[in-house]
Amino acid sequence: MKRSILTLAILLTSFTPLSSASSTAITAANTQQQEARENARAAAIAASKAYGSQEQVVLEEPARSFVDWGAIIQPNGTVLTVRAQSVAAAMGLQKDDKLTHINGEAINPRELASTLETIERLEHNQAFSVTIQRGSDTLELKGVAQATVIPGWRLEVDNTISESTVTDATNQSCGRVSVFFTPPVTRDFFPAFINTIDGNNVRHKNPNFKLAAGEHVIGVHELISDRSLRRKSGIDTAKQLTLNVEADKTYYIAAHFIREKRFSRTDGGYWEPVVWKVTEHSCSLD
């Protein structure tokens, strides 16, 4: 079986009383985080399909910036549209204005594209001016360039599904814990990820872990995406799940969203780590 795994984590923090405006802002931030995760998941699937023969795919780009003036200019210099709340709009540029000069240099309609590059090459917060013809009036409009920064990004897609052995026991009987399968959201079970096992940091791409039979303490983080849950962005604390692992059994772990406690964010009372399914599979530490 071959599937793409993209490890995503939304880090959360404790809750303090919020104003209505703050609550709205947090709701918007949560929605953006969820959309970012869904877009990243879609990108991982697309990358897996495009590079399906490779076990691991890494796509990345460095950070960069660009200046978008916010106006579309026809080849003859006439303004076709001005985007609302753009630099061009703030300068007072209007539809049907005719651009004649940029920073005092006359525009050649045959070289308009290269002329507009003058604006695109501006630095962030650099002042500039344009001269326009509006009807019978000649106007000079002044503005300040605003750069948009595209952050650097890196996407790793692992097309292999493997498991890690986390034990130093001599006992060869073992079981497994897993977060591989998506739990049933209709039962308020949401995805989670495992951060520690018996105090050891195990957070990496493998979703399956072999453990010697016996009692283990699993550190679990929630990935609850329900829109009724509001929380600040930050670092959350893992919850501990004590599990008695039996030989040849696989325990599937999820974050159980306790809907009636969705406002209990100070102590994280809105969720708990649970085992939502147990199956039998032979297991050996050999």
Automatic annotation (TrEMBL):
Domain of life of the source: Bacteria
Signal sequence bounds: 1-21
Keyword Transmembrane in record: no
Keywords assigned by UniProt, alphabetized: Signal
Alphabetical list of Gene3D superfamilies matching this protein: 2.30.42.10
Pfam families: PDZ_6 (PF17820)
InterPro entries: PDZ_6 (IPR041489), PDZ_sf (IPR036034)
Domain PDZ: 79-134
Protein name: PDZ domain-containing protein
Native source species: Pseudidiomarina woesei
